[in-house]
Give the backbone structure.
Amino acid sequence: MIAKEFTFIPKQFEIQKVIKSHKYYKILFAKNQDIQQFVFIKALTAEGGQDIFITNEFRRECRLAKKMSSLAHPCVPRIIYVEHGMCPRFYMMEGTDGITLEESILEQEIPCEIATRITLQLAQGLEVLHREYSILHRDLSPDNIYLTQDLQPKICNLQSIKNADVATITSQGGVKGAILFTAPEICSEQFDYSIQSDMYSLGLIFLYMLQRKMPIESLEDLFDFDIMQIPLDNYSAQNTLQKMLHRDPQKRFTSYGELIVELQKIYSAYTPIKVATTNNISDSRLSIWEAKLDSLTKKLAILEQKQDNLTQALNVTLSSMNNKMKQLENDNSQIKNYLNQIFNK
């Protein structure tokens, strides 16, 4: 039934389930049967394809996705393919056979160390998106973060991302994303999305992981929520959380770089660093070479991922071209039959 709705998706991609369903689009989890690779597919529904505003928004989203296709970061799914043309109907991202952060929080308690590491990795991914592409996510929530089998977070759903230099106020764009993870200033009469508003959403996600309780449960709580009123004495991240979730955006961290430094300090307390002495200099040198080897291995893995990405994009393009050629041949045949009928008369 799902496959019939999205006949424009190449046949080698077997749709296994719907991750997110919306009136105008669906996010699908699929598997490329040719190379046994999982992918996320964001595709317009028939109704979405007929709405001019939605198609324009999706075209903007696809342009940003194309820009991000060269990005290789563990927290950001690789963009594998964006449909060509003036009105693209779908694009594909690297998939993960895991669960959402929301599902993980509901299933079991996440230790403070793991919650800190996940928050740190998400901050690093958001920092790269902003530094390299001036992108604000605007829809950070546990539902839009996927965890791999080894708990590596992936920032998903590009629907609400936007270049930071494009002003957005309520009268023009409205509030984007999950309202209960939105910074309070965004819901005011005049607002601008910023690093600080995304940082506030990340802080709520961090707090949610630590407490396994929604920090804000209703729209009324959105404006009444005050991090200073919440007991955080048991958490080493108390000061960091209070700064991330300050009601005044100007008193939050001014950059992701500052936040990352603080999170690294907290996380390093969970993972003590061995100090080399005169008795273990050889071990220290061995560790350095092991670190270099590990770095080279990671770079090789990134290159292999890029090669797989290019191979898959080529396969999808060829499949799309073959479909178009068949359509052209069919159209040509119909034209010939029509002309023959006219001349025979």
